[in-house]
């Protein structure tokens, strides 16, 4: 695969999308030491100083329908948790749909974006930010974020972790292409799900209620149970252009 490395860039998601527009190859990986315009979900930024973190984005050109793309984010979350466990021994969890956490603090965020053309996927980019060797965090996120170094006490080789994430994601992606759903990783995902069996507050545009999270179904929706009904909640966290 093609790996493009930047000492400094705006955002690896922006680099990957740019390559997506210009015929960049399926499977290309964009990695940066530092981002000056790192992006998080819901229009937020992503602090991206040099030296401690992983900032990377994978460019894919899937042939399945756009509606399936959000599931890739969940697939990536499983790959990240398992790669972290392989490389550091630390077992993180997943906060639905796709935050990787440890003791309630965030270790990794994933931002998936896609471009579609006449109802087909032109490209998808999956951006992954992993907190690896940070010893401190800025005041605003100090209570919400943690790093592998803070949790394990050991420095971690970022290259090794990147390779482990990619290896696992690739294997899961191959299966995903066959089944076009999350059936192969659903059980793993649900074991890692920190919300499982817990009360969650469901916020709908015109409604708000408490329910118990059961787990995801094969398409990545969260199944929740209230006292009189079972419902599924769609994450759909992919920003779309095109
Ligand atoms: C989140 O809000 O949880 C998602 C954060 C995603 C951050 C990563 S870092 C690499 C890639 N490039 C970006 O600008 N964002 C993603």
UniProtKB/TrEMBL annotation:
The identity of this protein, by name, is Bifunctional ligase/repressor BirA
Outline what the protein does. Acts both as a biotin--[acetyl-CoA-carboxylase] ligase and a repressor.
Q: Which gene encodes it?
A: birA
Entry's family note: Belongs to the biotin--protein ligase family.
Ligand binding (biotin): 11-13, 35, 106
**For this protein, what is the EC number?**
6.3.4.15
Q: Which residues cross the membrane?
A: none
The reactions it catalyses are: biotin + L-lysyl-[protein] + ATP = N(6)-biotinyl-L-lysyl-[protein] + AMP + diphosphate + H(+)
Q: Which GO terms describe its biological process?
A: protein lipoylation; regulation of DNA-templated transcription
Work out whether the entry's keyword set contains Repressor: yes
| Keywords for the protein's UniProt record, in alphabetical order | ATP-binding, Biotin, DNA-binding, Ligase, Nucleotide-binding, Repressor, Transcription, Transcription regulation
Molecular functions (GO terms):
ATP binding; biotin--[biotin carboxyl-carrier protein] ligase activity; DNA binding; transferase activity
Q: Name one GO cellular component term.
A: cytoplasm
Q: Which residues form the signal peptide?
A: none
* Residue ranges constituting the BPL/LPL catalytic domain according to the UniProt record: 1-177
